[in-house]
Every structure is written in structure tokens, then in C-alpha cells.
Write a structure and sequence with these properties.
The chain is an alpha/beta fold. The protein is built from twelve helices and 14 strands. The strands form four sheets. Strands 3-2-1-4-5-8-12 form a seven-stranded parallel β-sheet, with helices on both faces. Strands 9-11-13 form a three-stranded mixed β-sheet. β1, α1 and β2 form a beta-alpha-beta unit. α4 packs parallel to α6, α8 runs parallel beside α10 and α8 packs across α12. The chain is globular, with a radius of gyration of 20 Å. The protein binds nicotinamide-adenine-dinucleotide. The site of nicotinamide-adenine-dinucleotide has 27 residues, from α2, α6, β5 and β9. Its EC number is 3.13.1.1. Keywords: Hydrolase. GO terms for molecular function: UDPsulfoquinovose synthase activity.
Length: about 400
Amino acid sequence: MRILVLGGDGYLGWPTALYLSNRGYEVAVADNFVRRQYDYELGVESLVPIYPLQQRIRTWKAVSGRDIGLYVGDLQNAEFVYQMIRDFHPDSIVHFAEQRSAPYSMIDREHAVYTQVNNVVGNLNVLYAIADIDPKIHLIKLGSMGEYGTPNIDIEEGFIEIEHNGRKDVLPFPKMPGSFYHLSKVHDSHNIHFACRNWGLRSTDLNQGVVYGVETEETKQHPHLATRLDYDHVFGTVLNRFCIQAVLGHPLTVYGRGEQIRSFLDIRDTVRCIELAALNPPAEGEYRVFNQFTEQFSLRQLADLVVSTYPGDARIEYVDDPRTEALAHYYNAKHTKLIELGLEPHYLSDTLLESLFGVIEQYKDRVSWEAIRPSVNWRRTHNQATRV
Ligand SMILES: NC(=O)c1ccc[n+]([C@@H]2O[C@H](COP(=O)([O-])OP(=O)(O)OC[C@H]3O[C@@H](n4cnc5c(N)ncnc54)[C@H](O)[C@@H]3O)[C@@H](O)[C@H]2O)c1
């Protein structure tokens, strides 16, 4: 099977490309390196050093004997997307290549517009290219559990049966996300669903939870193969950030009372879920949604776990929540479809945290302390300066 990984230079795209290559698939990656550009813009960098993509690919060839193809370009450029898909002619396209930080999308008007244009236009170009070149190509698209928000009912996997005024239908699950980034994912989901219904495309929309961890079997094989580990307040995801704060002796910054509940998964399960989706493609015209996570925790539960596992002193500091989100709420999301396809989850454990502490310890001198404190505020005031 030929698999094209869009966003192959990113936190998840690179380990996914390595995993699939190691399992014998023909793999190519595409990226425009804009994620590295956000680091320059924000004055931060991955805690674990990451090597240029070309170097990563050369090292993988040396280590494994396997080739990974490379396409450098922007998905917003339709000509690039069409040429790449014609040239590589994949069976499946895994689409990770979006601006993925909620705080980044909430910095100001410019970042909100950029996020939505980049994500929605890139995804539309991919949909059109698949429809024009080969509608049999399976699009595996990364969405987010954040698309649903925190409704006061159980969250289903994409669709819900609704009875209204005596009539019934199965309809897309209502979405009420909490940032312009998450809204871009909702717009993508609608566009993909529409393309499947109208053009007969086949797609899997993976509503993924928050990913933690930094190592997979493949990335561990050589320092050049490492993936990024972000801890800054804009791109750092919560568990990775808590672990880094513990190792640095910085209090674990829990927003509000820490009662917000979110869904999580290990990076080793992300790569496996992608393979499971690729091995079990949907039918022609089918749009399906999998909730891609393995466990749910409140932020306080996670912080307590990190504090109790870390061998040194670690403490929690409750800070004002810069986001507008429900501080305490019901949360129960279904996630059975990937398990039914064969996912055997890695549950969050002390051993995982201990290995993460080890990686962080090794690179802790690279930390920029200014990057840790939250500075993007979801609330706007009328006279807030905004760049136009
Ligand atoms: N990391 C998580 O915890 C998480 C959770 C849920 C969903 N996701 C989704 O998974 C995907 C990957 O996340 P990640 O953490 O690896 O993000 P990342 O930012 O590390 O990687 C995304 C990659 O896509 C590239 N990219 C962005 N826009 C592009 C464009 N227009 N053209 C070409 N390349 C482009 C970036 O340069 C980057 O290398 C994202 O779509 C994200 O929304 C991630």
C-alpha cells in the first residue's frame, strides 16, 4: 500500500511516516515547514532537538534500508497538491498538515484568519485533487475531539440518532468547539462529508484526543529520528507540559480548578490508529468518524499523577484560565470503533511518565522559561489592539 503523509515534518506526522515505513508500506511525506516558522515567530523551539527533514529521511534510510519520498510545498497551492498526488499516486493520504494550536489561533485576528485559511483551503485542495485524480484514494484526516466541545450528553462517534417531532434521523453530532482552530476542524469535517456524499469519495475523520509521549520504536533508533516535544504555552500539550514543568522545578500550571475533562492517547497508539484506518478503508462514498483516544482524565487528575510519579519535588499552581471553557462539566465520549478494528491501547502509566522524565532531563538546559507561562487570552476587550 502506498501512503502519503501530509505534515510529515510534524510531531505526529514524522513518527507515523517512520512507523508505516517500518511496517513495509511505501511512504512519502509532504510539508512546507511552517511549523518551524511558528517557532521562530514565537521565539521557542522543541525541547528535543529536531533535525532537518532531509537529514531525518537520510538517517532512516541508513538505519532501516527503506526510502521515504519527500514533497516540499504548501497545501494551499493547488498546483503543488495535484502534482504531488499525480506523481506519488497513493492508496491512502494521511492529512496531518494543519495549524494545530488553539492558543495560536486565538492570538488575534491575523492568526485566526491564517489558521482557518490554511486549514480549510489546504483540505479543500486535497479533496478536489482526490476527486479529479482518483476518487478511490482514501483520505484519513486528523480532526480533534475538541470539535465536540463539552455537551451535557454522551459524545457519540461522529453521528447521533435524533427523534424530533415524531420523526427520526441519524445526523452529524452537534459541534460546539472552543477556539477558531477547533472551528477550522469542524469546517473541514463538513467539507469532507459533503465531498463523500457528492463525489463518492471515501474518508475517515479521526477525532483525536490530546496526544502525549515523544518516543516510538522507530524514533528511538537514532537522535536524528526524534520527533518534536513542545512545552511552550502556545504549542505544548497538557501532559507533556506538566512533565516538563515537574523536571524543571516549575509549578505545574493548572488552569482554573483543573476540573476540565479531556480525552488522551499515547503517541504509539496514534501511529497504530492510522494504520488500522488505512487497512480497513470505508466504502465508496462513505464518510466515517472515529473518536481516536483511549482514556479521559481531568487536568487535576493528570497533574496529581505527574506530582506523585515524579521522583523529586513537584507542586501544582492553579492559575486563571486564559481560555473560555466550562470549568466543571459532564464528559463521556464513546471510543469503540478503533478498538473493534484491533487497537490495543497503551494506557497512561508510571513507566511512560518515567521515560518521559528521562528524555526531558536530558534536554532541560534548552528550556526557555519565558515560554512556559500562558499569555494568549481568549477574552477580547473592545479597545484591544489588533493588527489589520
Ligand atoms: N498533537 C496533538 O495532541 C493533536 C491532538 C488532536 C489532533 N491533532 C491533529 O493532528 C495533526 C498533526 O498534529 P501535530 O501535533 O503533529 O502538529 P504539528 O504542527 O507538529 O505538525 C503539522 C505539520 O503540518 C505542516 N503544515 C501545516 N500547514 C501546512 C500546509 N499548508 N502545507 C504543508 N504543510 C503544512 C507543519 O509544517 C507541520 O510540520 C493536526 O492536524 C492536529 O490538528 C493533534
